[in-house]
Amino acid sequence: MKKLVYIILCVMLMACNDDIYLSSDFAVGHAMRFEVTVEDQPQTRGEVLNVNDNEVTRDFKKGDSFGLFIIDGNNEFVGQIDGKNAKNIKLTTPDGKAWNLESEITKVVHKLGYRYVAYYPYSADFDNCASPADIQKRLTAPADDQSAQAATDWMYTEPTDPQTNAVTTLVFKHKYAKIDIYHSFTQDHTCNWASMYKFTKTVDENKVEHYRYILNSPSLQTLSINGKYTIGDKYTGIKEFSYNCPDIKVENGRHAIVYTYRMDERCAIDLGLPSGVRWSPINLGVESSNCMADTYMSDSEIAAAINKLGKRLAWGELFEKDSYTLGTYIDGSWNIMPSDITETVYDAAKQLWGGHWSMPSAADINELIANTDEVSRVTIHSDEIGRDINKITLRSKINGKEITFLTNGYMNGSNIGNPTSLYYMSASRTSYAGNYTSLYSPTQTSNIYRPYGCCIRPVLKELYIYPDDKKKDIIVRHIDALAVDLGITKTVTETINGVEQEVTYKLLWSPFNYGVESKVDLKTYNGAPINEDYYISLCKKNLGMRLAWGDTEEPASFHKPTYNNSAIGNKYDWVIANNDKDSRNLLKEDDIVQLNWPSGWYIPTARDFELLIANVTITKETIDGHNWFRLTGKNDYSDDSILIPATNYIDNKDNKEFWGSDVYLQSCTIGPSGNEPKQYALNITSEGKAYLAPGAGRATGLMIRPVKYVRVQK
């Protein structure tokens, strides 16, 4: 259906430059851009290899650099351009896609007889290379100690001829590749990888182990990673745990992250607690054997495990015993262990399940009590202790989700005491050295003797909240791929190489308003991978930033006198009485989208909104109780749409998040308005009628929906 092919321009339509087009005459030379890819991969080098489902993403990252050499018609490296060094030119990517010069020369040229060869990652050590073979010789195997080696891969290209359009693609091949394996346990580790693979162990600030391996073959390999952990110490006892991840397909250029969790973190129950703590649905020690390999417990397995009690442990110990007394306790002197054993070698949940699991603190248990109600109590039989017990279900007062606990008692010696009550261990010791805090009933806690054996219900704590700049990086890396094509085109006349030609562009739209990252929380556990697709799906359901016209930071309030007296308020004083819109747009330095998103994206012009209105149908929807408007393309583009939240506008008020009944979106175009120029804005009424409003105040707080143009390749 959509048969047009188009390429992404690195400049806006309003700022086209003749030197992005290739002349038929190469003798003089023309400025060109470079794109990079990796041989046998659809995109560029990879980041994640998950041993459970082998999902792989492939992206260069912000800050990556490669070195470029120019080969002349005599197969020699070009030494200078305009009297400046042209060897080992450094190009760096700000977003994983575009590549910018970091060189004294102002541009890399394509001209007759020129070819190009490159290597990755950039190093000044290559400055004196005299040939492509010399470059490959310098791509030597990395040192044995990889702890300080930042590069993920060692790659190079064959000499490359310039392409016949504005972009030359450099195709990298691998010489060496690095694999990072992140182990979530904090204890000593051994593995049986063949000696041909060098590796270095480091431990990060979150106590997560990193094992960095070097592969010296570019071919696809299937490996089995086997290893064991020795957990515990002279106080807790020592026990070995093994793991096996068979048939992992590893390809050079793919950066593998292997999490060897003992228990799947995705099963944790989110009760909406203020702290963000999530509780396991099952007790420690009832996990199935699947957790030890490369699969997770199924929902049915978890449901069955809810009715099991699991391990009974003394406070700070890792292994069950025949008798729980002061005489068998590891800390009979009461002075070895800290007052809080969370994430220490004494934390049984951390050590036995790994990952980011830990024992709950007393505060975690008190938070659970304060935010739940008991909704049911059912008698079931426990084969583990040979008697009836109660299954108690608690329901969150915040989000209505439920969690179940079993009355279990505690082990005193070899006997079970008080089996009709709850006894769930916390990681918090009381002021008395011999006791710790325990969940005793759905409504209270109790102190219990540390040598006694109790059940443990692990928790996950959200230890890291992504800041806005990190969240924005996710959006910036994905936005070009997310752009929505509604079938809107624009044809203009341009002078190319001295000849006037008609050129057609497509108008693409962002799937969400600018600045949604500041409105969507992204929380994770230290070191855990992020589901970026899920995060972006949340962004699509949020509002975004409100900004006054030309503001590049979100203000605390929208106040007309304050705006009129500001630098941006005084900068634009156009008073235009006609309808010509093309000459009154924001300058680049005042367009927040151009400043912060990849090249080509900007705040829509008034004419962009006119094109949008003329080429879509509008329907109203209710999502999560709020008004939204779906703008759908016509004809061949009837399957493509964007959703716009109804946000209204703010005048002379504090900037607070709220939903409304109408849509108001900011343009970058000043409208005709006598002695007080205002701005054009898109208005979609509560009835779904859309029009271009010329009288929105520049100090008014409006949302922004970014756009970009791409040239259609005929």
* Count of individual helical segments: 10
Beta-strand content bin: 35-45%
Poorly predicted segments: 1-28, 40-58, 180-189, 191-197, 206-211, 214-219, 250-261, 290-294
How big is the Rg? Answer: 31 Å
Specify the helix fraction band.
10-25%
Give the class from helix and strand content and strand pairing.
mainly beta
- Global geometry: globular
Question: Can you walk through the features of this model?
Answer:
The two termini are 16 Å apart. The strands form 14 sheets. Strands 3, 6, 9, 10, 12, 13, 14, 16 and 17 form a nine-stranded mixed beta sheet that branches. Strands 1, 32, 33, 36 and 44 form a five-stranded antiparallel beta sheet that branches. The chain contains ten helices and 44 strands. Strand 7 and strand 8 form a beta hairpin. It is mainly beta. 11% of the residues lie in helices and 35% in strands. The longest helix is centred in the middle third of the chain and has 15 residues, at 468-482.
Features:
single chain, 714 residues, mainly beta, nine-stranded mixed beta sheet, five-stranded antiparallel beta sheet, disordered N terminus
